[in-house]
Amino acid sequence: MAKDKCPECVAGSPAWMTTFSDLMSLLLCFFVLIVSMSKVVERDFWVAAGSLRGAFGVMTANPTIISLENTPLPRLKNIQRAIVDKSVSNMQDFIESKNLGESVKVVVEDKGVALTISAPVMFEHSRAEMNPASFPLLEEVFKIARGWPNVIRVEGHTDNTRIVGGEYESNWDLSFARALSVVQFAINFSKIHPSRLAPVAYSEYKPVADNGTPEGRAENRRIELFMEYKKETEDPFK
User: Is the overall model pTM greater than 0.85, yes or no?
Assistant: First the structure.
């Protein structure tokens, strides 16, 4: 018995594919229209960019700061890493534009970002009233910090020279008064919420150089701003 012949196949794609293709094209046009009418939020853009760069291991490097790609950041989410990357880059650009590289240092650590400012940039000798010339620098620092929700610790450091007379009785008093002046500037002029700020005094007891030389003492007289990372379990924008 002869087998039935297979029906001849119709040339071309099935009719339903034409309708399906038209539907996909219309959907594509619809989403392109939505994207073109939407507003790009800068923070979200940098979050997305940071996530991609973090995923592919691509980070900016500059000899004036510690490269983020070589710094262990075990407690950071990608969303925070993007904010850190952009904040450090902005601070570095501003410091270089004002030729402050010798007086202001930015260091990325595994617990946060440290900004060290030489005391003469901000204060007269043995005084805690801020020099108005330092206002633009601090305004730029805290302008960046406004978009970063983490705690900012302001540390006052001095050399070991004894204070004789004057307004302050000891280096403890002087270092705390200077840290407090920076905190008050952040609150009153940069509108940083007080709950995010912590003034700390270390007096002469955390030197970074030898107090036996004028150069070392000058290096030890400084203000350090330490912006701590939030832990991974916390909401970085709370």
Answer: no
